[in-house]
Amino acid sequence: MLSINNIEVVYDRVILVLKGVSIEVREGSITTLLGANGAGKTTTLKAISGVLRSERGEVTKGSVQLADRRIDGMRAHEVTKLGLVQVFEGRRVFEHLTTEENLVAGGHVRNGAAVSQGIDMVYSYFPRLKERRQQLSGYLSGGEQQMLAIGRALMSQPRVVLLDEPSLGLAPMLVEEIFGIVDRLVKQEKLSVLLVEQNASMALTVADHGYVMENGRIVLEGPASKLRDNSDIKEFYLGLNEGGARKSYHDTKHYKRRKRWLS
């Protein structure tokens, strides 16, 4: 469904951020991209969705394909029309618009009847948004704003959704609820999802396949079940020692990343 083939990304024609990144997102599945802050995860999503150009970045090598269509170099609104949409980190709802007005804004590439159907579909997955349909989105809770950001993305009737840190700043119960809804959307609406998430435990629970990024490169990939059992993943991303127990504060304080996968 979505193929990222050996791409390089450069900012300001000087700063090399991504170095030969290749990722495959299969139809009707969740693929997760893990990595520390600054690894290049969000840049990867922006390279796919066409947002890089507005930030003085560009894909200088490789290609991005949606189905059989090459989309690198396209503008963001053109990519959206083809069925790919990005949900940005930090939610970014239109705070001075109501919940429903935010959804209408998300359906700008569709006609009136399709917008109405899209709103009904969003409310069926997020009934809490229906209860707050006339409330200004700036007064919604963090969890409700995240639901709205996802619902707004669904309004364009996408085939592929790029989710950037949906659990950021949310309570564990809300995170579980939102990921449960995302899982339902994938199964019932046949969506394909590329998930960037620092909550590695949750990401590897819901995902089918995973990639690990370090310093702008993919250093490890495999089925999510195998990544969960990988000793490096357990130590570096799940905070577990080799026996499966939580690492102590002393271990963490003196922790030095070994990066065995690069050796």
Topology:
Blueprint: E1 2-11, E2 15-25, E3 30-34, H1 41-49, E4 57-66, E5 69-70, H2 76-81, E6 84-87, H3 99-106, H4 112-125, H5 127-131, H6 142-154, E7 160-164, H7 172-189, E8 192-196, H8 200-206, E9 209-214, E10 217-223, H9 224-229, H10 231-236, H11 249-253
Parallel strand pairs: 3-8, 3-9, 6-7, 7-8
Antiparallel strand pairs: 1-2, 1-4, 4-5, 9-10
Helix pairs in contact: 3-6
Protein traits:
263 residues, alpha/beta, Rossmann fold, 2 domains, 6-stranded mixed β-sheet, 4-stranded antiparallel β-sheet, 11 helices, 25% strand, globular
Number of strands: 10
N to C succession of SSEs? EEEHEEHEHHHHEHEHEEHHH
- Identify the CATH class of the largest domain: Alpha Beta
Q: Note the total helix count.
A: 11
Radius of gyration: 19 Å
Name of the CATH architecture of the largest domain? 3-Layer(aba) Sandwich
In the CATH hierarchy, the third-tier topology of the largest domain is known as Rossmann fold
Could you give me the name of the CATH homologous superfamily of the largest domain? P-loop containing nucleotide triphosphate hydrolases
Percent of residues in helices comes to 25-40%
Distance between the termini: 32 Å
Widest sheet, order of strands: 6-7-8-3-9-10
How many distinct domains? 2
3D shape: globular
Strand content: 15-25%
The low-confidence runs, each spanning 5 or more residues with pLDDT under 50, are 248-258
Largest sheet: 6 strands, mixed
Q: Find the structural class using helix and strand composition.
A: alpha/beta
- Determine the mean pLDDT: 88
